[in-house]
Amino acid sequence: MPSPLSAYDAMVRDGTLQPDPAQRAGAEALDRLAKSLKRYDPAAKGLFRKTPKPPKGLYLWGGVGAGKSLLMDLFFEKAPVRAKLRVHFHAFMQRTHRFIRDWRAMDEKTRRAHPSRMKSASLDDPIPHAANHVFSEAHLLCFDEFQVSDITDAMLLGRLFGTLFELGAVVVATSNRHPDDLYKDGLNRQLFLPAIALLKERLEVMEISAARDYRLGHLEGDRVYFSPLGKDATARMDELFARMTARGEIAPMEIDVGRRSLHVPCASRGVARGAFKHWCSEKFGPGDYLTLASEFPVVFIDDIPLLGPENRNEAKRFVTFIDALYEARAMLICSAAAEPDGLYPSGDGAFEFQRTASRLHEMRSRDYLSQEHEGVSEQAAE
Asked: Could you state one GO cellular component term attached to this entry (predicted)?
């Protein structure tokens, strides 16, 4: 199997990526980690053998469009590890909070019988068991868009990651911020400082200061909105989707949202794509849109029709989806039957739609497109 570095170099040779020294340095660091993982097996311990020491992980940080997520995707695809997990950090924290809530709701007998129970930990303390639950699934953890904006997360992370590292987990993370700037100016930030120190101890911190914006470099003349509908708009969307995903493998994706999952028709490398008819069906609610907006920095919406009173429910869901994408500063790329101001020309709800039209215009601007993608808090998503 090709290594992360050889895969990166191949993408440069075929023109999918432009040469960039900072990106290649990141690929080299990930390549070294992949080679170390070949020799690491946390289960390789016995009566006369010590627990093997895990290799140091990697924390890649840098500005929007530096290619951090792409590099991590290449690493994840090529890493010689079976038990591995690649997840958006916001989604990971949502899952962790749900596990903790569920654990607290269990009686003692159920806790004792739980497959994720850590026998050395108190049954009344859910955090070690939450960490053991994650480690039982994967010992290589790849987190995209590592950021901390919630006091609950800040208080939880130190102990959660401390237990994960004790168990032998290896972590790779991407972020727009250096670890020292995580949860900056947050409430009771001094309580989060040990978690920062732990990350810096267990992960090599590396800046990816790319010479160009990898993401914006794929846009021709800032075109992210294609109208009217037709073969030309579809062809533009197809080509832009291929370039935004660096022509990676495209597949459907299911996102865990508690006791059910959200279906994403096409997903690859932090980019989601689906038709208006899918995104704005009755399967989705406000919390689902917030989750999607946090999970994906780039979202494609195909075939937005002209809207009117007869499809007011779909129009309301579309408004909610656009609000979620806007608040998360996600990039929106879409094809539509008309320009934003003409999508909902008259009828019940048309006046309220004017704000959405205004946002659709703003989301095409260079200023908006160059902003950092942001997540939403666990509370906001509920």
From this structure: cytoplasm
